[in-house]
Amino acid sequence: MVIKVFLASSSGSTAIKKKQQDVLGFLEALKVDYAPLDIACNEDNRMWMRENVPVEKKPTNGIPLPPQIFNEESYCGDYETFFDAKEDNAVYAFLGLPPPPGSKEAKEAYLENGPVENGTIVNGTDDAEDEENLEAEEENIDDDTLAPVKEEEAQEEAEDEEAKGEDDQPVSEEEEELRQLEEEEAPEQEEEDE
């Protein structure tokens, strides 16, 4: 599958140029195969793009502005929808492509749908097994992400134990500061009394 990005190489609008550069730069960073198709120099590209952008996605004047993004013949969206997908970490879903293994998007898709291969959900389990697999996956995530939190809580408890007073009564920070001030004032009082 090749992503088609319709561009205008000789656009006078800096906004359009920036949007085009943003889309192409992001696709290159993701190592997504794409074909830039110029609508300024190629009338066939311009006509194909205009005919294949859905009516509800066309602006009020009826002429869609570049960049327009397609997955083969399937319309993906314009710059605004691309930007929204980018912000939501859902660019592969926006492009109709399977996310690469290990990516954040792939992990989210796995948690929501189970294993995915070539953009298709691979699911040979029944609903009960799905529930068990999801619970097991969530437990693994919880264990991995909560381990530092649990360790920090244990350390705080140990510090609280150390902060207990001589009579094994818990001492708050305020009480400790008050005690220190009283100790500092006590020698001064004795000197004044003498």
Write up what this structure looks like.
The chain is α+β, with helices and mostly antiparallel strands. Helices cover 56% and strands 12% of the residues. It contains 7 helices and 6 strands, in the order E-H-E-H-E-E-H-H-H-E-E-H-H. It is elongated, with a radius of gyration of 31 Å. The chain starts with a strand and ends with a helix. The mean pLDDT is 78.
Brief characterization of the structure:
The protein is an alpha+beta fold and 194 residues long.
Report mean pLDDT, rounded to a whole number.
Answer: 78
Main sheet summary: 4 strands, mixed
Side-by-side strand order of the widest sheet: 2-1-3-4
C-alpha geometry:
elongated
In total, the number of strands is 6
Computed Rg: 31 Å
Per-chain topology:
Blueprint: E1 3-7, H1 14-29, E2 34-38, H2 43-52, E3 68-71, E4 74-78, H3 79-87, H4 91-95, H5 104-113, E5 116-117, E6 120-121, H6 127-163, H7 173-193
Parallel strand pairs: 1-2
Antiparallel strand pairs: 1-3, 3-4, 5-6
List descriptors.
194 residues, two-stranded antiparallel ribbon
